[in-house]
Amino acid sequence: MVEKDPIVRRFLDDVCRHVRAKELHPEIREELGGHIADRAEWLQVEGYTEEEALREAVNQMGSSEAIGKSLQQAHRPLLNWKMLVIIALMAMIGIFAALNVQYSGSVPHISGLLEKKALLTGIGLIALVGFYFSDYRKLLKYADTIFLMSLGLMVVTLLNETTVNGSAAYLRLGHFGINTMELSLLMLLMSLAGMKSDRQLGWLEGSIQFMFRGLVPIWLFSLGGSMPLGLIYVIGYLFITWHTNKSRKQLLIFGLPIVGLFALFLSQVGQVRYRIAAFFNPTNGEDYQLIQTANAIRSAGWTGNGFAAPNDMLPYIQSESLFPYLIYCFGWGAAILIGLLVLLFLKEIWRMTTSLHDPVAQRVTIAFTTVLAFHMLWPILMAFGLVPFASIELAFIAFGGTTQILYFAAVGIILSMYRRKNMLPRVKLAG
Fold first, then answer.
1. φ and ψ at 398, to 5 degrees?
2. N or C: fewer beta carbons within 10 Å in the chain?
């Protein structure tokens, strides 16, 4: 190996000293060492001795400082400014929306809505920045532990028996209620991305793990009345499984039972059956929510009814019905603006996902994109009567409670992966 030569080794050490991403040092040393070896071979053909050829080859490489600085520039940390601008705009719209709702007087049972929204948004942005500078790989080393902890958190939440709007998704801590089911959803999907694939485990153990990872969380989500989160988990789980194994046969063999079991759990929930029936037959007045939403949007026109326009007929205007309420106040242009921001957000996340070199990072972003896309698209489609009503709030914009902090944290983790995409070797083994 040419690296055994002290001159070559010193040259490579000098180059790597300027590259902060230590993970790339072996790859850089191998590539530059290969160039030096190739040049040295040609020089020996021309009559140089081995030692002279290596020294001349190093000289022909140029300045180690210049090469190192050039590589550092190419592999520097990245920041997606487009995503930050989109997030900032949605956060500002969310705070303005809270102000609009508070001044409307339509939610007198919620005091200090604007202050709470601003505080939670600020905490969310701090979480985003904190996770942006974190190293996601250190967290994913404990993927199996995180998965089991998530299941344990769900069990504790169910035993706590704190019910909000028919859902046992919250864990009461003093005066605060934390949506631990939503937290568990993100933790489960992230840990799935970092766990060993079925191929690495072997057919029998892999099959058992496949069913365990799929069935147990779905069962716990159904017990907590969090069927929308269960649906998101099923979709994210199937996406991650496909990305990991690329086995259509295995996906069908084990995926269909999981989907079937979720459908069975879904059919046992009376409220779900009622909402689906109302969705397909709203004309008989079976779904008050859909009818009032349609009326609010139709009455808005292009100009809307003005800032903080009262609407006592539209329920949950701070959460599930915030999107139609903003249309009611500010007209159809508000729908276009928010819709464009959502599409730009999802487009930018997809662009970041496809640019990542680490397959584990790709799976995490796919998982988080599934969660965020569901929380962005469903409320919009719900407002126009394209999907049944569900207790799903528009991410970053609706009040959301402590849940919105989780959305900001998820974006922070995605940005962290994008930040390191040029700082990691391209050749990686799929998890």
1. -65, 165
2. N
